[in-house]
Amino acid sequence: MAHDFEISLDFEACKGCGYCLEVCPGNVFDPGGVHNGKGYRPPVAARPGDCLGCQGCFMACPDFCLEVLRAPGKG
Ligand code: SF4
Ligand code: SF4
């Protein structure tokens, strides 16, 4: 499905705190099932089509793991 925003999550930098899941008004993230090199399980941006572009996850992440960019061609 086409969507307006692309969410990038730095898998290895994430420490699995879950703040991004808590703050997201679009319920974009699901808890992750795969451990990174530090032993944490980063969330997965499972529903990027529901992203509102609020930047809440970007601001909430203590480790600057998240980037939310407008998808190319969407103005
Ligand atoms: S920008 Fe807002 S709506 Fe989009 S994933 Fe982050 S918190 Fe959720
Ligand atoms: S807020 Fe950042 S460090 Fe915490 S789970 Fe989300 S991406 Fe990982």
Description:
This protein has 75 residues and is α+β, with helices and mostly antiparallel strands. The chain has a single domain, classed as Alpha-Beta Plaits, CATH 3.30.70.20. Helix content is 13%, strand content 19%. It has two helices and four strands. Strands 1-4 form a two-stranded antiparallel ribbon. The protein has a two-stranded antiparallel ribbon with strand order 2-3. The chain is globular and about 35 Å long. It starts with a strand and ends in a 5-residue tail after the last strand. The model has no long low-confidence stretch (mean pLDDT 94). The chain binds iron/sulfur cluster (2 copies).
Main CATH class: Alpha Beta
The number of E-state strands comes to: 4
Element order: H for helix, E for strand: EHEEHE
Q: Helical proportion?
A: 10-25%
Major sheet size, sense and barrel closure: 2 strands, antiparallel
Q: What structural class is derived from the secondary structure elements?
A: alpha+beta
Say which molecules are bound, naming each kind only once: iron/sulfur cluster
